[in-house]
Design brief:
With 122 residues, the chain is an all-alpha fold. It contains six helices and no strands. It has a domain at 3-84: MazG-like (Helix Hairpins), CATH 1.10.287. This is Nucleotide pyrophosphohydrolase.
């Protein structure tokens, strides 16, 4: 299923429950952030090593999968409400990022694009 098909399935699910009335842009953005916080909560107090090892645990992996799905579903609702084609927006953003982060300046660096000219300070 691609993003437009998934969006249509989600809208059908929403409409069958008469939930569109609750889905103002503000409420959807708040809900997205709440779901992102639940995703973040899965990492709370854990080291990177602990997280990596937890991914082999079925229940932890399922929780991560569910929270990722919740974030995606709210993002699809926001994009639909705002008239944003996410595939186009993502492609466009990748192009913008490629211009801001040229390989020769950003390779292996965590610097923000505004600081990339500070060579050797990583």
């Amino acid at each position: 299923m691609n993003l437009p098909e998934l969006t249509q399935a989600l809208l059908k699910f929403r409409d069958e429950r008469n939930w569109a009335q609750f889905h103002t842009l503000r409420h959807l953005i708040v809900s997205l952030n709440l779901e992102a916080a639940e995703l973040l909560e899965l990492t709370q107090w854990k080291t990177d090593e602990e997280l990596t090892s937890l991914l082999s645990d079925d229940s932890t992996h399922q929780a991560l999968r569910d929270e990722c799905a919740d974030v995606l579903l709210y993002l699809l609702l926001i994009a639909d409400k705002a008239g944003i084609n996410l595939e186009e927006a993502a492609r466009s953003k990748l192009e913008k990022n490629a211009a801001k982060y040229p390989i020769e300046k950003s390779y292996g660096s965590s610097r923000k694009y505004t600081q990339l000219d500070r060579a050797g300070e990583d």
